[in-house]
Amino acid sequence: MGLFAHKRTHIVGASLILLTVFAMLYLSHATLKSNLRHPVLMVDVVKSPNTRFKVYWDTGSGWNEKESASKSINGTYKSQPLRIQLPRRIQGLRIDPSEIGDAQEMHIRIGWFRKWTSLNLSPEMIAASHQIERVEQGQDGQLLFSFEQGCNDPHFVIKEIPELLQSLEAKRIHLLTTFRILAGFVAAAAALVALFSMRKP
Amino acid sequence: MNRYFSKLSGYAPLLLLLSLTAIICHASEDRTGPTDADNLPAHGSVSFAASLIADSGTVHTGGSWTEEKLKAIGVESMLFLNTLGEYNGVDAPGIHTGTILSDPFVLQDELVIYAGGNLRDDKIALTLDDTQTGDSLRLMSLRKINGIAVKRWSIPTEWKGRSVILRANDQNPTQSGWIGISPPLTQVPGIHRFQSFHRLLENGMHAFVPCLILAIIGISGTLVITRHAPRMREHSLILIFAIPSTVAFAAFFIYLASAVAGFFFSVIVAASGCFILIRFWKDLDGIPAGIIRQYLPALCLALLSAVLYSSLLQLNWSSHNSVVTAQERFLGHVLPLDNFLPYTTMERLFTEEGLKPFVMEWRSTDRPPLQAALVLLVRPFMTNSVEGYQGISVFINCWAFIGVYYLLSSMGIRRAPSLWILSLLVFSGTFFLNGTYVWPRILPLVFLCIVIGMLVRNEDQRRDFLYWLIIGIGCALSILIHQGSAIALAGVFGAYLIRHPRILRTQVLAACIVLAVWILPWVVFQKTYDPPGNMLQKRFLANHPEFDDVSFKDALIQTYSNLTMKEWLDGRLANIKVIVGDFRTDFCHFFIQIGRGSHAIRLGTFLSLGITVLPVAFALFGLVLRPKILMSSACQSWRIVASMLAVGVALWTLLLLPSGRTIIPHGSYLSPALLLILAGALASLNRTVLVITSGFNFLCFALIWALPRFLSIQTRTGLEDTEIIDWGSMTIVCGTVLCILWLLGSNPPGRETEADWTTTPDPCL
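ok -> structure tokens follow
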């Protein structure tokens, strides 16, 4: 029997499964794309008092409350991840890591997911520090903040945000392309397997 | 299998007709968006500007509820962003009560108002005051308002045409908060009439592909295992459920490590499932097709139940998403956030937000993860995570019915009576409510029932290691869904060991080792990620409700050392009472509350078996008619199941320390399921008794869960009338009920002779 000679039930079954494969790939691509739409500020708090972590982003109107977001930090946890979604196009980013003067340790990343698609913040990328005595990098790459005594509004600004976003965009495209290639392989392989395995003996 | 498909194709015209009706109804409705004319009352000016009063706090009108604020309280759509009268007690010191008064307007046939509050226990009293006579008509009081809800009243004849003032009073003095009222309208705006129907369709659309993928993973995994280990063939059914569950359990930890890795893992697992299914399609005629052939009626019933439950959930208009709707739809108070916790776990892992701190004072390690993990495994294929989560969760909850069907066949009950007995569970308020309020209470039943079925079915396999390994996996997965399964299993094996004291220890040890291996990752996670993770054990076995780091053992010692014998006995008595429920109250409300929403009886059903025990009483007639047969060897499995039920209930009653907690909050639903299964089995001794019992059960279900709302809206005028039937969803409800009745009707219990039930069917094939 030839390659295209199939039982009718096999054709129906294969078509249903192939449709499921295509639907699955389409939906997962849509979900991944929507997840990668906005960059995210990812903070992994290693050590901190009970306080609030606040972020301002500049879209051309300067720092203002409307373009900010904050999350509370629970000091009892040894490792506490925070995620704050950022607009897609920003010109600057200001971070207020704490409201009080106790020292903090945290990983700060910008991207989408912790691994492969994010950029770690290092002390060199920090500028315009206010009420921040020292920023150092720990052994695991975390930032160690010490604040001035009696401070009430310590904050800093991240340098070269447009360049940072550009390199993030490259990572986003890289991830999406990887997925598309994988999806293409899966779809093609599914179609081939269906064609070969369901022909009449 | 073709026979079943050809039978199923008989549904096609019916379903087509129903779909067309729904679409036509939908299309014929005025769905144009709200216009200024819609928002204006028919008579009178009702701006709130002139007459705002506050005992404390502030009131204002014409204010704007911003989109962020509405989203924050869970409201997806809102017509009146700029026209609400609003009382805000947030900044007020002390007691927060406030009143909003409207300007006078003239009443017509109907009055429609959007009312809102931001707290789950906010209460608004709405009254109409006649401006001339001073008479008052109370519209609504002491009702929960969470977010924005549309309220509609039919105005009594004597009030029509009167000039009135609307008074809205915040009656929740204990919390700071706000309430808001829209201007009065004369009809519900068209845009909201089919909102619930759309949400129901969304449930189905967003859950369809993920559910299909779960099924494909289960079937393809079973196919591979049975090809390489033919001895596993007879355990194919449990494999179909255990494989996606185990893969999902692995996915949970992969997502925890990295969301990107988890995403690719999900896609690769789903794609592999499809590949395997295509590659070995020809083998489907073997084992999986045999399973599908045998369990197709139960599968159909489970799918129809999922559709029925979802459509009943969306039967009335709700401004919230499905998960929040399930919390507040059926009872007089809002249920807690438990049905949101698996969603929170899933979504946080998917977006890599991390699980600590978790929700309020709960820790992510307090509850086992398998329900969340199952949805997480197929999360990449959901474009709307909330509606998809609800849809998938209802679907996987209904897997339980397939497990029950397996147990029934293990008890020697043939297909047709099994379906009728299964309908006792499908149309049971307890299963319905916990099926839509998607916390992991019913899902463990699929594994528990299959394990019990294996125990009572295969007496000759007790020496087989494989048999015990599968039982170990089944037990582990049920515990990984809900910790209460551990106590349920203690009852099952307690009764089994009493009956088989010489059971081979090595085999049982093997089962225990497998169970431990399956559970070990979770225990390690519990102890290392966010310890101690023992809140539920402490709360329910040691009556220690505080969130602290006290160990379970210390809490247990501390509580029992301070407990007097009288207190302990009173607690046991309360636990026994709650199993049956306040039967007298339930029975009275059964008749009295038909026109009043039946909140009390629904609560009774949620808390205990309540009125669901009535079918059990009916079923006893079956026993009266054929008393001797119960003592025959053919009914041996029934007696084993009855002893498992008895030991299980005794354990729950003795171990659950807080008074009156035997069923809720943390018993698994094995005891109610076994009770209904045994009731059905007894009823099946006589065809007429089985039909009457099922019919009565269906009637109870319809009266309590569907008709009261319908009747109250149609017959009661002038007073509280807060929910509006969505006719699109109603069409689906009616269609699904008809399909279930058709399925039952085409399998009449008398067709298979009574002698048949004494023969145990061949396992699986």
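Chain A is about 30% helix and 30% strand.
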